[in-house]
Amino acid sequence: MIEITYLFHSGFYVELEKSILIFDYFRDNCKKNRYEDCGQIKKEDLPDNKNIYIFVSHGHYDHYDKEILTFNKENVSYIFSKDIKPLGDFDNITYMGKDEEINIKDIMVKSFGSTDEGISFLVSVENTNIFHAGDLNWWHWEGENDKEKEDAKNNYFKEVEKLKDSSIDVAFFPVDPRLENAYYYGGEYFINEISPKIFIPMHFQDVYEITERFAEKMKDSKSEVLRIRTRGESLYKK
Fold this sequence. Notes:
With 238 residues, the chain is an alpha/beta fold. The chain contains three helices and 14 strands. It has helices at 146-161, 185-194, 209-217; strands spanning 2-8, 11-16, 19-23, 51-56, 76-81, 93-96, 101-104, 107-112, 120-125, 128-132, 170-174, 198-202, 224-225, 234-237.
């Protein structure tokens, strides 16, 4: 079984038969009445009978919320990008740079680069391959000059090339409205080159409309592109 819940921004909660994966948890300043309406997690909600893996792709505030450190208990393992300052009080944190591979309990993690800070993750768990891009994207900013745009594109292409032999069941990938007309560049290229079975947009804060636009644009692709409508939404269950 697998159930994927959208938390907020680039944060996701993935529950499988024996494992729970939490990616890039970020609370922000949600003012809604109910805790779950904000896409937030409480330590007491985390089960004791599953291995829990908490991933942080890099140290930017919208990907690394130190609230995750309060989730610590015996069945929790943390996997952090090396750009995050080491925490001496924890012996269950594994720090990864790009192009590394580790095994922790019943999962295997490969790290890839980013085109901003930190790393991206490919996690193999319970016969499922899950990719979380972090800030890996084709960052085409209108305010940059032609050389900067070309360098950004080429750096992105180099990282995607490393993934071409990977079979990916679920991919979490930025579809960022701040890129304006270029919001889809990275996601479209990723789908065309890698063909994940399920593509889930992220890194859009509360601009849910961008997921509708992207899903419509990619409706004829080989990947199933999911739409997101609210925090705490169960996106996929099988």
